[in-house]
Amino acid sequence: MKIISARNHGYLDFLTVVIFLLAPTLLDLSQIPAMLAYGLAAVHLTVTLASDFSLGIFKMLAFTLHGWIERIVGPVLVAIPFILGFADEAVARNFYIAMGLIIIVAGLLTNYREENR
Fold this sequence. Notes:
Layout: H1 6-26, H2 31-50, E1 51-52, E2 61-62, H3 63-83, H4 90-109
Parallel strand pairs: 1-2
Helix pairs in contact: 1-2, 3-4
């Protein structure tokens, strides 16, 4: 069941960018998780602004491609603390796992085939 519209997904995308920008300070993340959070904020903002949906500005990426990018990013975020070696930092590990799971759930609930209006 796709209960998140493209427009509401866009709002969630911008919220995600803000969360990634604030996390290093609010959670006192160490260097690698902090740098990754800033990088992810930039990439997430770029993908959102470049997507062809109501809140996209440049409309270079199909919204369905935006969905596929998030289908990859969600699981990668769950795995990244183990891949990059900061799984022993509980706060950073839990942050990335939570963000990955949130992106997975949002992706499952978003209508990526909604017409651009």
